[in-house]
Amino acid sequence: MARCTAPVRGHRSSAAAADCPACGSRYGRSYGGYSSYSGYSSPSSSWGSSGGRSNSGGSGGGTRPRWSRSGSSVVYTSAEVRALTPVRESVEKQAPRPDNRDVFLCHAWDDRQGAAKELHDFLEARGVSVWFSEKDVALGTSLLREIDRGLAKSRVGIVLVTPALLNRLQGASISDKELSALLARDLLVPIVHLTTYEALRDVSPLLASRTGLSTAENTMASVAAKLAELIAP
């Protein structure tokens, strides 16, 4: 019987878990009625890695996805390319809508003036239009109604996974409702920040089945650069 390598090597990332002879077969299953992205056999991720950051867009990089424009300085790990390719394919199938936002940013309320605002600012500096509750929900309006409108008019959803979001997801919250809607669309990119893939899996196996980007291996500016390339026409 295959033995789990976690006691020796740890499973601090989905890539490590995928390499484990006992646990690797679990990745790529469907959770809660939703299937993980197709197009690769075992989604691996850079989440929760303790590797160093790279200002050019990822550690262990050198891989360039097909949607990266000539002359771009943004580089990716092979795991990031595998994770983002299905999202890019879905983006390319969308019909153009001039009133759409590029990105819907799902975040914990506690992060609205911190990491979420930082990511929002980096994205907008790169010309990405972002639905962000701090600026898109006016006083006196229904928050849930505005969230519904924002989700309907956004091309891609990103979820900023932080310790604060994990705490919110353990109880009923607006973030949980946003997350359910984004997972159903198959246009979702998780951004793991100051936490690990294992911690996310303990709280939300469904979200953990989707791979994305991590600030453990990218600066927030590099994450924004990769998202900007991902949704570019």
Structure in words:
By secondary structure, the protein is an alpha/beta fold. Helix content is 40%, strand content 10%. Helix 4 links the parallel strand 1 and strand 2. Helix 4 (115-125) crosses helix 11 (220-231) and helix 6 (143-152) runs parallel beside helix 8. The longest helix is centred in the middle third of the chain and has 16 residues, at 78-93. Mean pLDDT is 78; it is low at 5-12 and 25-61.
Q: What's the structural blueprint in terms of helices and strands?
A:
Elements (H helix, E strand, L loop, with lengths): L5 H4 L4 H6 L58 H16 L7 E6 L8 H11 L4 E2 L1 H4 L6 H10 L1 E8 L1 H7 L4 H12 L2 E5 L4 H7 L1 H4 L4 E2 L5 H12 L2
Parallel strand pairs: 1-2, 1-3, 3-4, 4-5
Q: Helical percent range? A: 25-40%
Q: In the residues, how many domains can be counted? A: 1
Query: What would the principal axes of the Cα set say about the shape?
Result: globular
Radius of gyration based on Cα positions: 17 Å
Q: CATH architecture, please? A: 3-Layer(aba) Sandwich
Name the features:
alpha/beta; Rossmann fold; 5 strands; globular; single chain
Quick gist of this model?
With about 230 residues, the chain is of the alpha/beta class. It is about 40% helix and about 10% strand.
